[in-house]
Amino acid sequence: MIKKSDIPNYLTYSRIIAIPLIIVLALWGNENLRWLAFVLFALAAITDFFDGYLARKWGTTSPVGQMLDPIADKLLVGALLIAFAYDGTFSALDLIPAIAIMMREIFISGLREFMGNKKLCLKFLC
Asked: Looking at residue 122, what is its pLDDT?
């Protein structure tokens, strides 16, 4: 039996588990399978909203959920950016914002990790 308090974490887990399927459908599928990949990506994006919303609403936030939620987001976006760069969906100019997105994700994650134990709070990060 699934406990109500576990549902937000299961939504996050489902987003991580869906990544390989989305990538396979997007890379090696025909146009219909790429649309299915898009639908799965949209559903994953919706679970991103609901896992946090439900955890806060039900007061069931967990350290695992707080850690995995941003990781799941970065894995999903990063995997698709790399996949589209690999298969040529992106042109050379499209790679510029893709690289900028990945650099920002890595930089912010590193900054948060570095500042995690410090009492310093920068206005744009807090």
From this structure: 57
- What's residue 16's pLDDT? 95
Question: Rounded to the nearest 5°, which phi and psi values hold at 5?
Answer: -70, -20
| DSSP characters over 111-125 | HHHHHTTS----TTT
Which residue is listed with tokens 């890595």? 106
Q: b vs e for 67-88, b when ≥16 Cβ sit within 10 Å of the residue's Cβ?
A: ebbeebbbebbbebbebbbeee
State which H helix or E strand residue 58 sits in.
helix 31-58
Q: Closest Cα partner for 18 from 35, 41, 2, 34?
A: 41
SS3 content of the chain, % helix, strand, coil (to 5): 80, 0, 20
Rounded to an integer, the average pLDDT of 32-57 is 94
Q: How far apart are CA 4 and CA 58, in angstroms?
A: 8
Q: Is the pLDDT higher at 67 or at 40?
A: 40
| HSE value, Cβ hemisphere, 13 Å, CA-based, for 58 | 16
Domain boundaries, the chain: 4-90
